[in-house]
Write the structure tokens for this entry.
Amino acid sequence: MKVILHDLDSRYDEMIGSRCDLVLAADGKYAPCQGCFGCWTKHPAECFMKDKLRQACRIIGHADELVIITKNLYGEYSPAVKNVLDRSIGTSTPFSTYRGKQMKHTLRYGKHDLWKVIVYGEISDAEKDTFRYRAERNALNDGYLRSEVIFLPNLAELEGVL
């Protein structure tokens, strides 16, 4: 299953929706993670907050390919995208294991294929390096076999890389 998480406005809904199985719009119409860890322990992979991200853990957890479209913000995800990723901590469990010769949380949904980040907006070489590193670490932490980062100076090129 291919899931696209994005911070774009509604002009892109039709194009994005036609290229994936599920869409998570990081539109800010949800609460930020409260850090209660209920999605880890009390209600595995389900947030207690009754908003549009309640099932985000399960949606992201079942994704073979996760495509994140985000505006560059000093070499990091936009705040709206970061909030969605924070709310998906329940894709793993509180238990630990070794993965990639490093201690990681046990995956609730097993391995995945591709963690792909499409970054738009002005970006420096140092910020590109930060994004590549971030995507690689996120992929390893969430059980993705590979990561890819694509930089778009302008969104007119988006259709060609989805």
The CA atoms of residues 30 and 51 lie 6 Å apart. The chain is about 25% helix and 30% strand. Residues 2-161 form a domain with the Rossmann fold fold (CATH 3.40.50.360).
